[in-house]
Amino acid sequence: MRASMLGVTRRICNSREEEGELRRGPWTLEEDTLLIRYIARNGEGRWNMLAKCAGLKRTGKSCRLRWLNYLKPDVKRGNLTPQEQLLILELHSKWGNRWSKIAQHLPGRTDNEIKNYWRTKVQKEARQLNIEATSTKFLDAVRSFWMPRLLQKMEQDSYSSSLTTLDSQSQADHGVRFPSSNSTVPSSLSTLLCPPESKLARFSNLGSENSSSVTSPHVLSANSDTISPHPEILENPTCSPLHGDTFYNNLILSDTCYEEGSCYDLAGFNQASAGMGTYDNSPLECQMAEGNWVSDGMEDTLWVMDDMWQFRDLRETGI
DNA sequence: AAGAACAACAACCGCCTTAGG
DNA sequence: ACCTAAGGCGGTTGTTGTTCT
């Protein structure tokens, strides 16, 4: 039955394509305009009908995808934060390639984006390690090396921002000396990773506090960068190389169908990040051995060659 | 400066599930 | 109960931009 149904569908699609009715490929500014305007007035859903009524020569599926992955107001753009990366790694270790399920825990991020991240970044690392990305060995490596590094990055971000208000004496009192241009290593990594009032400490308590609901807006709030509202799109249209953003910004902010705030309401992000509550059973906390972890250039890759060699050494010694 | 190689990500495809008639 | 269309999901491909040689 299904095969015949699909066959019919394909025939319809093919005939339409043969007639040149349906457009494919990258969306144009005009198409984006039509779609956004139509949804602003009539809402989402009934995508095939929507495509027709909006005057778009696209399939309903294509419209839906364009809207959900790109045009929808709460879609968050830009690089994934360490928090988000950490969350993806952890959730993927639990659920595998359930991208949409994972995406539900990263508000503003689409399943497509997460999937792309996994394929381009995570699988690449696995290849470099010569390990299957789905293997338990790789998962071990992620837990032992990558996640601590992300946590460290989060801590550094947090400390960097807090230290801007501290004088040198205060910094000494806190036992840290950074950031400097040459990445001074803190005297104690455990201090760096597990300060008493750190996000990590709160992070690790979440499971026992509330593992299912998304609450406690204070949690993980130290790094305000992660929840800043679409600065690229809303305040600097010129930074976007894609036609959609600038256009979208102008259109939406001038369209009375949308309230201004809804265009960049990402406040839920940190809450949801924290709300996963799975860290009570994961070896995230302070598991990193004392060693030369800290290096420059962590923004570019969180899994540097030193780590890989270290991991290989551990594998070879049977750890 | 030009071409090749690589990376990032937008978009499409095919299959499955679900809702409604 | 069956049929169909629509929506959703994960895998894959194509395009574009960037970096390297």
Automatic annotation (TrEMBL):
It comes from the Eukaryota. Its main location: nucleus. Residues 21-71, 72-126 form the HTH myb-type domain. GO terms for cellular component: nucleus. Residues 19-71, 72-122 form the Myb-like domain. Keywords: DNA-binding, Nucleus, Repeat, Transcription, Transcription regulation. This is Transcription factor MYB62. One of its GO terms (molecular function) is DNA-binding transcription factor activity. Signal peptide: none annotated. It is found in: Nucleus.
